[in-house]
Amino acid sequence: MKIAGFDIGGANTDLALVHFDETGDISIIETDFLYFPMWLKKDELGKALLKLVKDEINDIDAVGICMTAELVDAYKTKEEGVIDISRKCKKIFNVPVGFISLEGVLKLDDLIKNPGQVAAANWIATSKIAAKIASKCIMIDTGSTTTDIIPINKGSECAKGRSDLERLKTGELVYSGTLRTNIAAVVDKVPLNGEFVRVSSELFAITADVQMVLGNIEEEDYICDTPDGAGKTKLDCMRRISRVICGDLNMLSKSDIEQIAAYIYEKQVESVAEALLEVSIRENLDLVVTTGLGMDLIGAKAAEFAGLKWKGMDGILKRDECVVAPAIGTAIMMGESVKNF
User: Fold this and answer.
1) How does strand 137-142 pair with strand 104-106?
2) Which tens digit of pLDDT belongs to each residue from 194-234?
3) Which of 38, 115, 221, 332 could join 69 via S-S bond, C-beta 3.0 to 4.6 A?
4) Tell me: domain 2-123+324-340, CATH 3.40.1190.20, correct?
């Protein structure tokens, strides 16, 4: 049996093709992803899914869908987004299609009755994998845009928040990610020549620029659009960071910009660690399982800053599979539920 799991985000859509053998065990996992800004291209979603799945479409036995793209401002409400995305997915595939919700895997008819159950529920799928590593832990999944911090106890997620709004209150969601976060959302001041300078709130630079300047990622890892539409070289990234304090490369040295980038990175890790520690203390959990694009750059660093033990999800998945863990978890959940469709 071959199940396709899709994680449809606002900026990226991920695919996992999970092959199950006759005993129900996973034999092969194939993954892919596509930068696909839903706020611009929501009506092309069907084409994007087909582009990802390629010739495998005729071999797929079922499809699982999780999503966070319902939040993009192309939709007036999240309910509208969930229903539109779900109907587009159901229309594309001629096999059973299920949708990850807070209560399990739903058919389209059931989803339409309660679309809020499906909105931004991708962390439900990822937590299923984390629970296989440790039955009592905190899963931290840092993507390009956000960080999920999900407590797990007795092998099941036990998040206090059940929506993004609630999880922002409970420390279980931090809107800070590896690539797409506006620098002005991370810091309000940066160091320069022994003093602090307030930052501009314009979208001049993002966390991908910081990671490039620090040498933590390569150009091919910078998979989102740049704020100014220019290139993704280290020099381009330095130029963008200089604008954050209304400067340029004539005013700031390479050393100045590297110092600023290091400070921004440190503050981002601290902000995630603060939320992680809040969940750790409340739930009495001290082991962290990291995954996602920023599992090492953000997740592990935040755990260390908080004084918590951690292990990576790459203990059971390949590192590139960890980047699309929600899609893999979605395929697994759909595989376990397909008999009900």
Assistant:
1) unpaired
2) 999 999 999 999 999 999 999 999 999 999 999 999 999 99
3) 38
4) no
